[in-house]
Sequence to fold (358 residues):
Amino acid sequence: LPFIVISSTMPQNSVDAPDTRVVSAYGNASQLVAATLPLLGVFVYFLYEAAVRPSQPIYALGDVDDDVALSEAWKETPPMIPLIDMIPVFLSFQGVFTIFFVYLIVFIPRRRTLLRSYLEKGETCLGDVIYDSKNLRMCASRGNQYGEAEYAYPNTTAWTVRKRVRVYQHYSRERVTILRLLNRPFSGQPKVDIQIDLQSSKAAIPTVKFFTVFAMCWIVFTFVSPIFILFQIKKLKHDDYEDFEKALDIYLIVGIGVIPLLSVVLVIMRWAAYRHWIVNRGWLLKQEGPESLGIGAQDEGVVGVFMGELVGKHHPEELSHVGSQMTYGTGPLASESYMNVGSASVDNTTSIVTGTTA
Fold:
């Protein structure tokens, strides 16, 4: 069931915008709600068990301290789920829904703001979008959602940038508008795909609001229910396992301390990784031979490794040909001579630097 809730942030098909991932793995909000009903049934059963626990024979004895009576009462008491063990179950799902809630109110709005900044403040250039689902190194269910954008590095024609981007038009395109954030040369994104993304995200706003309220209701329920269980534990006598002080410590440390802090930290880390991928990640390609590489890359603030030298040492045949010069904007988009992401091969005369901006 936690997987079902987190899976609701996954896209339903290859053309969904990332914000529409909250539309649920089964297609719509009502199906996700129905999927959590068994979980609600389990929690209601736990609360019923806590409500009737003081009436069990062993606990109904009150202050009686007779060993024979206690022994008989234990025999008459049926097997029970310890109330103290119910509290971590409530808190674990409180953590799941808290992370989900923080993701909805922090990650999604920040992501929309970042994409809008491309349209409002971004600078434009022309570039290519390379799409070849057979060569994408992602899991099968998501690989066809990504491609590679290639465009000129700012203020030079000798260098080009290639980076992985989210695409909504699943075919290669030449000389399309690429948007870059100011002073972020590796931040290029195809303009059309950003527009499609924002349009889809806008349509998903009602669904996001529904799931925000839905997650909040679950958080309140899983936060308040352990309080009732704590009161019931305090009523129990003749049972050393049902330790009220220990149960209270678990609730205060985990429910009030760890869960909120961990949820915020995880979502912020997820956002930082996503923003870094969008804004700073990319590969730098140079058309000239390897002898001219190094100074230019460092002067432009690029941190990286010259892959051409590495391949040339171990596989000189990869660099032995000098024909088929790759031309920016007009080259064969799906040619095997292009480098695949993560591979150790390069185009005949193309040098590659991998890295990020400072």
The longest strand covers residues 123-130.
